[in-house]
Automatic annotation (TrEMBL):
This is Ankyrin. Pfam families: Ank_2. GO terms for cellular component: cytoplasm. Keywords: ANK repeat, Repeat. InterPro entries: Ankyrin_rpt, Ankyrin_rpt-contain_sf, Multifunctional_regulatory.
Amino acid sequence: MTRSLSSFSNLDALRGEAKRWLKVIAAGDIEAVSRFRQVFPAHNGVPKLRQVQHALAREYGASSWAALKQEIEDRARSFGDRVRLFLEKSVNRYSTDPTTQKWGTYEPDGPQRGVVAARVLERHPEIVRDSIHTAVAAHDVDAVRTFLRKNPRTANDRSGFDGWTPLVRLAYARLPIEAVANNALEIANVLLDAGADPNAGWSDGANDFNVLVGVIGGGEGGQVAHPLAETFVRLLIARGADPFAPQALYNTSLGPDSTFWLDLLWSESARRGETHKWTGPAPKELGGERCSSALAYLLGNAVPHHIQRTRWLLEHGADAHGINFYSRKPVIKHAVQAGREDMVELLVRQGATRPELTELERFFAATVAGDFARMRELALKHPEFLQSHEPMFAVIRLRRADIAEALLELGMSVDIGDEKNLRALHYTTHCGAEEIARLLIARGAQIDPFELRYGGTPLTHAVYNRQTEMVNLLAAVSRNFRGLCYAGAVDRVRELLTDAPDRANRHDRDGEPALFCLPDDEEKAVEIAELLVSFGADPTFRNPQGHTPGEVARRRGLDDAAALLEDAAMAATKV
């Protein structure tokens, strides 16, 4: 029979009950064991405390101990806290903290954020009535209309939480609920009818993110587009949004070789007679003063890997003689050096001059072409060419282990890297070049070098890039404790802790011991957290932002791990 929580139920009492139940199970009490097996019928031996807590939660009708704990905490959480949590998690934020407006210090966008917001909404539907912002985020059309009837000016109200307008929030919302697809366009029309600014936006301190950017998505974090992206964008443009959206053009230039958004946005600019925005001085998001036009910047991003985009950009006015914004080299040189003869021919037909390559560039071209004889000839003549990382990185992009091996045989270092110490082994994790990674490791490459841009090792880069096979390969040989925790490499973490237990509280990065480095996978996060705590990791420690490991896990949607850490913190404070 399902038990019910009362107004007197609290976590301390429930923790105590779970511990007493575990104690009598361990003593062999038949009734206690039978009660436990009602939940875990196949379990043998003495369970762990978290399993008994799970069984107790099931008796109260909750799916897990974390869910039971959340139920009790929700009763204690203020209405304002629920509103803030919902507004925080319901949208893509492009790594910009809503409270500080600073980029790079905030958690990455991902589906789990929307799951947390949807759960808050399901459990507390009353938050919809807090403001037009919660009504919009919840995609409640009737509630939005009610707020606008009371005060039409709320259509452009800037939220005190993050400064966003309702239409901006609608564009960036990514909740896994049916109301998004069912109601988003109707709400957009309601807001626009009430005078909402279709060009409203926000800034991360360097770049401007408007409504169109939110709907289109994409970018360095691979943010998903709105489920009704095309229709939504056409509606916004029809209602006054400027189709020339620099940040959206940048974001989509990082994605696949597609001209869909280029076609749509250009055609709408042309309809307005405003294609000069594409061909005139570039905005800051697309190179600014260092780039002659938006098209010139985008061409540099397209060459050498996106031939469809390259063809489109040239047809719409990009100069085939263009210079890559980052390298300051002619784009055709990038095509030649990448061995993209199709791209070279396209650029030449459009007026570019096939470049006269330097000896180093000839070596690069021979390398990507797999011309081993020419590679050897040039390397013997210019051994300094083997000090450049670019040939190896190009080969890694091509996943040509045979050419990578040839470079090593010629004398290139297995630890070759760029000026920021991003090494070949790091780069294999960006490209999924597992065979080359194995080659580098077998030839003695350092396993855990730290690059200087983000402070990451090859393992942490593999985790970030979600390269599962690369994670497994590197975790087996890595000693980067932080990375191993993020990877959920339980056995390897246990091995290193056994060798040096102080790792449990060591700071590989200032203010962040290992309990702040849990993997995204909920089950592995619990295992890593449990293992660290068993070796003495401090669950009460606060990072520079003032958060405990449990609070950080909760923000990431790792509820079971958060519950474990919060329980451990509670126990630690009572010792």
